[in-house]
């Protein structure tokens, strides 16, 4: 396998290099820092700049939430955050796909598109889980058809009739094709 | 407990037996929800546009509640305190939080570095169950949750968790100067707030553009704005140019995000084929409608990974693009003062009050814009429990 540069990099050296440059290089660079203006920050007033960005490794951190479930974390950070949500840990086929997605950075289509694929498979897993646990789908409530019936009845009837018509037409067409074979 | 349960795009169930949340960290609190809202950005989840939205999750990032239990490290809150809980999960000590970027906390979302931690907003937002439930686990309880000021209406308090600060920040990001013409794309709750707050910064003309007639009517009354339906226009950008002396608006605000309508190409590639993260129509119009050297403020939500937007115009026109999730904690003191002084009464935008048990209806009504809905409020059955 080809060695890629990002796998050879010494981590957590940015501030070391920046501090070293400040001590040794900047005095030799003509004009260094003379136009610096803390108020020329396009994120102001959303951000009250106080230099904390440059203390990125030494800030006060909360205790670590116990890792008693599987938590996927972005490869763009060294580990999980000090707290995290525990809503729905990865599981099943969708979980395997999510684990694959998290091998790629957030800058890649592979990461996000694979997660969307996992989401759609997860929906099927959810339906299977429901059926095996005796829970039948109730689209009237769960898809909000009750609300459509109450507040948007003519359009709802029109949409339902059109869908039924299209499905019937498709079914008939398929049947006719099979007959010709 | 009762909790909203995501089952797939446009499919929501009320879970009657979801286990109650537990303290997982010394800085956690457990909150019994008293009011919860459905947000326009919840609809992006509902429509299946945000990656890593897992089946079984409970949405809801706008809620108030009563502290039921606190972790061993919580010092500022006590059991029984009634709090509003900003949608940002924020540690308060990382470099971003220390600079008041509470929407960009470095210690609350392991899944994505591009996104802060948010309640009930997919695993892309940290995987926290949200407030469309009877109880919620609230991490870093000493940082953002704020005791509801005495005398403040509970409905105004819950709107302070997101929509009011988000609308305010949309205007603030615009760098609006006295005399400016501001165009807000989108007359949803955030757009209405952004248009209303544009006046606070000194705008002297505020224009709202949308396609839902009752919302435009609402914008005229609530936001004191001129309001126009883009379906009555051939080209909304040309409309804005003509309305601003062929100069362009001083500031344009995109208060729509990835669910925008108005362009067949954007709809097809963004919402149909998912080749981009939803439709970027509002952003496209904003960049093209603003003056040269103007400011475009993005407050509408876009999912990863990318969108079609006119970057060339951005560069050639010298536009400043400003965007972020609202930093609720930073803005709360100012906004509490605006509400308590009577300068704004945000609860006017709440048009529907439903029991939590009807959460599926609330989503469908909000998504399909039924019954002239602007903002739905959910009330859990245990909201009034002792």
From TrEMBL, chain A:
It comes from the Bacteria. This is Uncharacterized protein. It comes from Spirosoma endophyticum.
TrEMBL record, chain B:
Residues 26-145 form the Alcohol dehydrogenase-like N-terminal domain. Its cofactor is Zn(2+). The keyword Metal-binding applies. Keywords: Metal-binding, Oxidoreductase, Zinc. GO terms for molecular function: oxidoreductase activity; zinc ion binding. Residues 189-278 form the Alcohol dehydrogenase-like C-terminal domain. It holds the Pfam family ADH_N. Belongs to the zinc-containing alcohol dehydrogenase family. This is Threonine dehydrogenase.
């Amino acid at each position: 396998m080809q060695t890629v540069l990002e796998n050879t990099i010494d981590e957590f050296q940015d501030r070391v290099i920046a501090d070293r440059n400040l001590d040794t290089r900047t005095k030799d660079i003509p004009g260094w820092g003379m136009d610096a203006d803390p108020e020329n920050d396009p994120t102001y007033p959303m951000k009250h700049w106080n230099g904390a960005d440059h203390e990125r490794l030494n800030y006060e951190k909360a205790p670590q939430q116990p890792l008693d479930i599987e938590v996927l974390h972005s490869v763009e950070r060294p580990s999980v955050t000090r707290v995290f949500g525990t809503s729905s840990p990865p599981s099943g086929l969708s979980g395997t796909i999510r684990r694959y997605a998290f091998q790629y950075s957030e800058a890649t289509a592979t990461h996000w598109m694979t997660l969307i694929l996992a989401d759609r498979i997860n929906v099927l897993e959810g339906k299977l889980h429901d059926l095996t646990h005796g829970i039948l789908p109730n689209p009237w409530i769960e898809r909000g058809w009750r609300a459509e019936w109450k507040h948007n009845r003519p359009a709802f009837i029109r949409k339902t009739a059109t869908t039924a018509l299209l499905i019937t037409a498709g079914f008939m067409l398929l049947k006719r094709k099979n007959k010709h074979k | 407990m009762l909790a909203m349960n995501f089952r797939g795009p446009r499919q929501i169930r009320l879970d009657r037996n979801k286990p109650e949340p537990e303290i997982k960290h010394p800085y956690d609190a457990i909150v019994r929800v008293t009011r919860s809202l459905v947000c326009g950005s919840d609809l992006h989840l509902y429509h299946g546009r945000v990656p890593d939205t897992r089946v079984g999750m409970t949405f809801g990032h706008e809620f108030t509640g009563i502290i039921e239990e606190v972790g061993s490290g919580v010092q500022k809150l006590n059991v029984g305190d009634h709090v509003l809980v900003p949608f940002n999960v924020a540690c308060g000590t990382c470099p971003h939080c220390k600079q008041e970027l509470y929407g960009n906390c470095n210690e609350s979302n392991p899944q994505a570095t591009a996104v802060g931690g948010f309640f009930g907003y997919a695993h892309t937002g940290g995987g926290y169950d949200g407030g469309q439930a009877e109880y919620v686990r609230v991490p870093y309880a000493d940082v953002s949750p704020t005791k509801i000021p005495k005398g403040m209406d509970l409905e105004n308090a819950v709107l302070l968790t997101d929509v009011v600060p988000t609308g305010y920040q949309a205007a603030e990001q615009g760098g609006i100067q006295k005399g400016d013409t501001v165009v807000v794309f989108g007359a949803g709750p955030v757009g209405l707030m952004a248009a209303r707050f544009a006046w606070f910064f000194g705008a002297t003309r505020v224009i709202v553009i949308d396609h839902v007639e009752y919302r435009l009517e609402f914008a005229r009354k609530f936001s004191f704005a001129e309001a126009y339906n883009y379906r009555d226009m051939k080209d909304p950008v040309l409309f804005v140019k003509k309305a601003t002396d062929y100069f362009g608006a001083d500031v344009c605000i995109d208060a729509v995000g990835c669910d925008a309508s108005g362009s067949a190409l954007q709809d097809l590639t963004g919402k149909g084929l998912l080749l981009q993260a939803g439709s970027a129509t509002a952003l496209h119009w904003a960049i093209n409608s603003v003056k040269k050297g103007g400011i475009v403020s993005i407050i509408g939500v876009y999912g990863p990974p990318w969108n079609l937007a006119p970057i060339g115009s951005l560069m050639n026109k010298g536009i400043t693009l400003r965007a972020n999730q609202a930093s609720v904690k930073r803005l709360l003191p100012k906004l509490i003062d605006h509400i308590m002084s009577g300068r704004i009464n945000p609860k006017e935008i709440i048009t529907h009050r439903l029991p939590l048990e009807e959460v599926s209806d609330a989503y469908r009504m909000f998504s399909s814009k039924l019954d002239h809905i602007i903002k739905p409020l959910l009330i859990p059955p245990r909201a009034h429990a002792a």
